[in-house]
Amino acid sequence: MSDNANTPILEVKDLQATGMPFSVSLEVFHQEVWIISGPSGTGKSQFLKAIADLIEHTGLVSLKGQQQVDVCPEIWRSQVMYFSAETAWWADTVIEHFEHKPNEKDLLALGLSKAILSASTLTLSSGEKQRLALLRGLVYSPKVLLLDEVTANLDEETTLQVEAFLKHYLQNQPDGVAIIWVTHDMAQTQRMATKTTQLTFKKV
Questions:
Q1: Residue 31: which region, alpha, beta or left (left: phi > 0; alpha: psi -120 to 50)?
Q2: Boundaries of domain holding 96
Q3: How far is CA 77 from CA 83, 161, 198, in A?
C-alpha cells in the first residue's frame, strides 16, 4: 500500500484541448477524489474527455507510469473511463448491455432491483440509466473514474447511495483507484473531496 500512497496513479502534464482556455497539470493518487469545479464554458468536460483520450489534445497523460500515447485507445479508455450524465443504450433490454451480469449486492447498493436487468431500456428513467451505466463501466475495473455530473438527475437519497457505493469501490480495490469528478453540487464536494478539495479552472 505504501507504493500506492507515494506513486501517482494518474499524471497529467500541460493538458489542453479545444474548449479549455489554458493547460492543466495534476497528479492523482490512490483513493483520491478530485473535484473539478468552475463556471460553464471553462472546459471541465473537455478536460475529462482529453484524459480519457476521447478528443484530440496536447500534453502528456500517464497511468501508473505508462503514457497514454503508448496504449491502444480502447484499452486506455477501459482503464481511464469517462462516465457522462448522458448515457448510451443500444439494445432492447438492460442485461444486453452488460458483458458480465452485475451482482445483486451492487444493484441494491445503488437503489436498483435485480428485476431491472430484464427491463426494456425504453422504460428507464435518466437516473436509472446513470446508475446502470456506472455498473456497466465498473465491470472493466477501471483505475481512474472520470465522472461528469453523474448524479445530476438523482434525488438526494439516491445521490448519497451512489456516493457511498463509490467510496466503497475506492476502498476495496487493492491495485489503486482514484476519481476525478465534475460536479456543481457544493454539498457533494464537501462530502466526497479528499486531499485535494477542489480544482478550479482559473488562472492564478
A1: left
A2: 2-200
A3: 11, 25, 24
The pLDDT of residue 40: 77
Q: Tell me the pLDDT band of 204, cut-offs 50, 70 and 90.
A: very low
Q: Supply the pTM of this predicted model.
A: 0.92
CA 190-26-29 angle, to 5 degrees, is 65
User: Lowest-pLDDT range, 16-20, 45-49, 135-139?
Assistant: 16-20
Closest Cα to residue 110, out of 161, 36, 49, 42? 161
| CA 10 to centroid of chain Cα atoms | 13
- The runs of H, that is alpha helices, within 87-198 are 104-109, 126-138, 156-171, 186-192
Contacts of 40 (CB under 8 A, 6+ apart): none
- CATH assignment at residue 196: 3.40.50.300
The total number of structural domains in the chain stands at: 1
CA–CA separation, 145 vs 134, rounded Å? 10
Strand arrangement of the beta sheet that strand 199-200 belongs to:
80-84, 144-148, 178-182, 33-37, 199-200
Which of 135 and 201 is assigned the larger pLDDT? Answer: 135
